[in-house]
Fold this sequence. Notes:
The complex is a heterodimer. Chain A is α/β, with parallel strands linked by helices. Chain A is globular, with a radius of gyration of 31 Å. The model of chain A has no long low-confidence stretch (mean pLDDT 88). In chain B, the strands form 3 sheets. Chain B has a 4-stranded antiparallel sheet, with no helix packed on it. Chain B is globular and about 35 Å long.
Amino acid sequence: MSKKTLIVIGNGMVGHHFLEQFVATPSASDYEIIVFGEEKQLAYDRVHLSEYFAGSTHADLAMGTADWYTEQGIQLRLNEAVTSLDRDQRTVTTPKGQYRYDELVLATGSYPFVPPIEGREHPHCFVYRTLEDLDAIRASAQSGKSGVVVGGGLLGLEAANALKSLGLQAHVVEFAPRLMPVQLDTDGGALLRHKIEELGVQVHTEKATTAIVEGVDARLRMNFSDDSHLETDLIVFSAGIRPQDALARSSGLEIGERGGIVVNDQCTTSDPHIHAIGECALWDQRIFGLVAPGYTMARTLASVLNGDAEAAFTGADMSTKLKLLGVDVGSIGDAHAQTPGARNIRFNDEQAGHYRRMVISEDGKTLLGAILVGDNSHYDTLLQYTLNDITLPDNPETLILPESQGGAPALGPDALPETASICSCHNVSKGDICGAIDAGCGDLGSVKAETKASTGCGGCTALLKNVVDSELEKRGVEVSKDLCEHFPYSRQELFHLVKVNGIRTFRTLISQHGKGHGCDICKPTVASILATCWNDHILATDHVPLQDTNDTFMANMQKNGTYSIVPRIPGGEITPDKLIVLGEVAKQYNLYTKITGGQRVDLFGATLSELPEIWEKLIAAGFETGHAYGKSLRTVKSCVGSTWCRYGVQDSVGMAILLENRYKGLRAPHKVKMAVSGCTRECAEAQSKDFGVIATENGWNLYVCGNGGMRPRHADLFATDLSDEELIRTIDRVIMFYVRTGDRLQRTSVWMENLEGGLDYLKQVVLEDSLGICAELDEHMDGIVDTYQCEWKTAVEDPEKRKRFREFVNAPEQKDPVQQWTTERDQRRPVLESA
Amino acid sequence: MKARTCWDAVCTVEDLVPESGIAVWTDDGPVAVFYLPHRLPALFAISHTDPFSGTNVLARGITGDLKGEPVVASPLYKQHFSLVTGQCLEDENVSVKTYPVLLDGDKIRLEVPIDQSESAVA
């Protein structure tokens, strides 16, 4: 049976989401799928477009990969715009050919509206929609000092932030009397304006631009209807969007009066074989300019095409929660009190810069809408009241009052109905979460993996954790944080006990705070904590029996009981002389030699008794231990940087060496990897590391909590344009905070995902010192840096410590009989057979 | 019929590491000797050979107790072995050989079979 053809026009966020949903349905196998994209790039995250200026690349923002399309058997035709649509023949035409369809999906999105102002075609006038637009804005900004955004809405303020991050004096020009007129009221808009102006962005409201002409002091001059003017070097129009409906219009599909492709509840147009989703679709006389409703349409259409007769789009909640230029803004439901009889409760604290407004129903029982500026901490609770029609308490004002004035705590997870939507990005309800728990998910991580909740924008992380904890508790699951049977404490709690009570040995800790004699879980954990707190040598008598074999023998045990040796090569920089020593030592001891992923050399096959001899030779040549065996800093990978590379803007090798020498030896809950790239091309792959540093023209951008390996995680941008000193202090604090609060064997990526409050919280702790612990963290780190010792140097110089490396204490000449060798590709390797 | 054995002096108290193990070579092959000073008796001896990997590494594992039973964890794949019975706690079909051990002055003596050196290679 030959397959039918499904064509999707548009490869944006909604189009991509539709494909993800549709290929997961059984019907997908009935279709050949072809996707046309007008832009050169694969679908990317337009919501986070301004991050492109903060160092993100298209790959960071991309929704999927070309490989994904290939794996799904989807024909992806980028940079190929569809020019005409023939509904009778059921074909679409592009400059490259004609394609027949059985079902057609229009996901053409929208285009920025540019008001018909004289002079708007000037080469330094832009819109803010695609990566190409951003590249053009960046190029223009390089030769300019100031920039104006026309439009003070959500996108306009995003664009203003982008101009600010490009180093321009940013202005916002708005026609309405206030910022964000759709979402905010007068008081909210005024507060937002005040906060934004404090950040250095100038706001001009009630300004209608009449013409754009050549400037006197700058490139351009904007003339306003009130005869005033403003000079600027570039202009970005962000005055709203218009549905991209040209193709539909020319083929005679039904179009709304003010544009938009008319669709029914099934997202189908006036032609039963043509469907439209996202910002190009007009449903119930409404265009939805947010991504979440677009996703809902995409899901609906995927179900419809899979034959689900019940599937229907029934409108979408347009509530929004944002951080604009660092200012919290929230708008829920009927924010402007348009429902007949609606009443308002307002709380306005000009001192603290907080504004909150509740719109409640005439009978005072339900919350119709809300506006928040300056502090979004009440948003989740208020949204749940609105979305789920939860009856308001007798004194509803307590919901927005500060707690000190009798404000109510956040809505408990128990109060939420089963239908309550917890994660709107992936449409996960409280009922879905309960279902996942009933099906065997026993912790937050597995619930996230099963339901995808909180893996989109991440805004619901705290709420999700509350729901999961509460549901687990209800089912009698004790959420145990005990490390093992010997200690009724988490690693973080043990860390505090050790630190606060000045405990220096395992024996003291277990006799005072645990029971029994310990095990292979708690002993290495405590060893790591003791090492972080006091930095004694790991082979000090009391600590020897606590270590994993790799730490005890300061080498990595391999499958045949021999060890591998990895000397430190900071930043991957090594002299020819040192390289020769590595070769000579490897040759003498017949060690298998391999270059590691962390830019160093791994020497395999040393027996226990050979280790001190080998290290004597390496130390004599100037090598230090590489801690490849430890839960500690491994390497700081680097590209060659500005010293050699024609694109490099900073000395990445120098910085990598500095960082590696600073943090070497520090014991952590798990291994820590870093990298430094000399420019935004990112050759050192820093964004897949626990700490990634990328050079900018002005300094360094720091990314944290990335991971490669089994479960890759893209690092989060933590701070931008740092000086050398700022970079080091910031890393100091994040590492120290991780070391103190991380769980046993928890990499920074998982630590971040489980950190309540996530990235924002970590920024507050480290950059704003919200817990008041930064001085202590700094002092702790300085102490560790000052007491660093090369563990191998200390060990080979101490005859007592060397005794530990005897293979058989009573037979120095006895070789281990089970170690059998063979040769492969000119090197020695173990004979692989199991006993 | 009981095999002939002898009490071999394998090392001295100086060689032991508290709360940990060392390996010695005997006529019966490699043996791991553990010294847990906070227990009575404090000495334990089991085969040094990890039955799961066939390598001689058990003396290099972490010691401890699970539900009161003194154990060592294999440094390779982390299974636990009772230091008293040699039983693997994760797999009831697997165990390692145990040896009687005693302190004689400052010498550690193991009771090992005589003339069975060919069994040394596991």
